[in-house]
Write a structure and sequence with these properties.
Blueprint (H helix, E strand, L loop, with lengths): L21 H16 L7 H37 L7
Length: 88
């Protein structure tokens, strides 16, 4: 672990930096967002198709799983409480 001898606390501005106003902070935020977006690499067509297929298979699997659980819980509820028919 390294220590600094300047006494600067990470995350806090140094004495040479001034406090920014609301518009200065917004402008700084926008510049940082643009800087980060320049680092983004778009996926290739093959990667994009792969990602889409993975998502579709996962969604289909979850639909089947939830449908089966719903059917099972419904059957348990009918077995437990009856189907609502009362003798007359």
């Amino acid at each position: 672990m390294s220590h600094t001898v300047t006494g600067h606390t990470p995350g806090r501005p140094t004495g040479s930096e001034h406090k920014r106003g609301i518009f200065g902070r917004i402008w700084l935020f926008v510049r940082q967002v643009v800087g980060e977006l320049k680092k983004v690499v778009a996926p290739s067509r093959r990667e994009l198709v792969n990602y889409v297929l993975v998502v579709l298979v996962f969604v289909a699997f979850m639909m089947v799983l939830i449908s089966l659980l719903d059917l099972g819980f419904g059957q348990v509820a009918v077995w437990l409480f009856g189907n609502g028919d009362q003798p007359q």
